[in-house]
């Protein structure tokens, strides 16, 4: 399963705790995921495919580091319906038979700095654990690369807009 695009917003809070003044950050957020390269019908010429249908992904992240290189780990959760996408039409199951829990260690490096924020490159492995209502769980290892745009919200919070590409094997 290839997650071709994931756009999200994360709010990283840096409250005035002693641990946070030493570079720790806690983030919560959400994103919208799109999938491609999943199971495809090759017997007919239409190329229809089954895939998770546009789940909203919830995030919890912890980071350590300052303005330079940061290390972090994130946990993501999503519940998705299965859709048959046949090009001109999409058929969507009524309930969400798929559940995703993802563990995502990350290395983040600044690319460009602005007066109130920065653009960062993000890279790291992902471990996806999918659970199907009608079948057993499946675990997939992959990689993610992305970019984050950070903007300061006062002295104790950052707004982060992130776009990323994740590649894993098919579920």
Low-confidence stretches: 14-20
**Rg over CA atoms:** 18 Å
DSSP strand (E) fraction?
A: over 45%
The coarse silhouette is elongated
As a percent range, the share of helical residues equals under 10%
Oligomer: single chain
Number of helices: 1
Read across the widest sheet, the strand sequence of neighbours is 1-2-4-5-7-8-9-10
> Structural class of the secondary elements?
mainly beta
Tell me the series of helices and strands, N- to C-terminal. Answer: EHEEEEEEEEE
The averaged pLDDT comes out at 79
How far apart are the termini? 6 Å
Major sheet characteristics: 8 strands, antiparallel, barrel
Structure summary, number of beta strands: 10
Please, could you describe this protein's structure?
The chain has 171 residues and is mostly beta strands. The chain is built from 1 helix and 10 strands, in the order βαβββββββββ. Strands 1-2-4-5-7-8-9-10 form an 8-stranded antiparallel β-barrel. A hairpin with a 4-residue loop joins strand 9 and strand 10. The longest helix has 4 residues, at 18-21. The chain is elongated, with a radius of gyration of 18 Å. Residues 14-20 have low confidence and may be disordered.
Can you lay out the helices and strands and say which pair or pack?
Layout: E1 2-13, H1 18-21, E2 24-36, E3 49-53, E4 56-65, E5 70-85, E6 90-92, E7 98-113, E8 117-132, E9 138-152, E10 157-168
Outline:
The protein is mainly beta. The protein has one helix spanning 18-21; strands spanning 2-13, 24-36, 49-53, 56-65, 70-85, 90-92, 98-113, 117-132, 138-152, 157-168. Helices cover 2% and strands 69% of the residues.
């Amino acid at each position: 399963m290839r997650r071709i695009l994931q756009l999200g917003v994360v709010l990283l809070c840096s409250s005035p705790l002693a641990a946070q003044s030493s570079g720790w950050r806690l983030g919560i957020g959400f994103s919208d995921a799109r999938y491609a390269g999943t199971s495809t019908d090759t017997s007919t010429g239409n190329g229809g495919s089954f895939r998770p249908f546009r789940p909203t992904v919830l995030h919890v992240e912890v980071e350590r580091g300052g303005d330079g290189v940061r290390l972090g780990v994130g946990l993501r959760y999503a519940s998705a319906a299965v859709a048959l996408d046949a090009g001109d039409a999409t058929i969507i199951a009524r309930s969400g038979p798929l559940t995703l829990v993802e563990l995502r260690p990350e290395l983040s490096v600044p690319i460009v700095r602005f007066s109130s924020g920065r653009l960062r490159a993000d890279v790291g492995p992902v471990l996806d654990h999918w659970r199907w209502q009608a079948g057993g769980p499946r675990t997939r290892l992959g990689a993610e690369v992305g970019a984050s745009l950070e903007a300061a919200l006062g002295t104790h919070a950052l707004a982060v807009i992130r776009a990323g590409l994740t590649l894993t094997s098919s579920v």
